[in-house]
Write a structure and sequence with these properties.
182 residues, alpha+beta, 4 helices, 13 strands
Length: 182
């Protein structure tokens, strides 16, 4: 079984979703980290950004905040809800006129730090991953995950997630392949 791992990317020309309060960008960085939050979650106030430099942005099934914090409309949840719930938790956010959820994926310790190419801070912590290598015995068959090696990990997605997204006609995300088990 060949598995590919991808990082989701927001597609240019589609709407964004940003915190209403500037300080909540960092709050989201810290809270969407794989730690179960449902019990004590307090939905953050968010806002859709529908215009950029005077140009209207198209509606997205995943209004873009970043690969570390994927946000989904109900249409995406209807197609991907089972997969998402199997690999993390969907947390409500407050946004005027639209029902949105933010996805908090589980942490999977499947990153092969030795086999990967990384840039490090002076304290040894990983700053950036240049070339991703994952442990196939851990990530094969996992549809979504974050890794513990980064302070703010992107959400990594597998083939099944990408296939469902594309075959369902969902809009607003593209996927960059960062690793293959082949």
């Amino acid at each position: 079984m060949i598995t590919n791992v991808y990082v989701p990317l927001g597609v240019e020309g589609f709407e964004l979703c940003h915190p209403f309060h500037e300080g909540d960008f960092e709050t989201l960085n810290m809270q969407i980290d794989g730690t179960p939050r449902w019990q004590k979650w307090s939905p953050l106030q968010m806002r859709l950004v529908n215009e950029d430099e005077g140009k209207s942005l198209s509606e997205s099934d995943s209004p873009w905040l970043g690969s570390h914090a994927l946000i989904f409309r109900q249409r995406a949840l209807q197609q991907l809800g089972t997969v998402l719930k199997a690999h993390g938790e969907l947390l409500p956010i407050r946004c005027p006129d639209v029902e949105l959820s933010i996805f908090n994926p589980k942490i999977i310790d499947g990153f092969d730090e030795e086999g990967s190419s990384v840039l490090r801070f002076s304290n040894g912590r990983i700053m950036r991953i240049i070339k991703h290598v994952f442990r196939a015995d851990i990530v094969v068959g996992v549809d979504l995950f974050k890794i513990p090696n980064l302070r703010v990990s992107p959400t990594f997605v597998g083939d099944r997630f990408v296939q469902i997204w594309n075959s369902s006609g969902l809009l607003g995300l593209d996927f960059k392949k960062v690793w293959s088990s082949a």
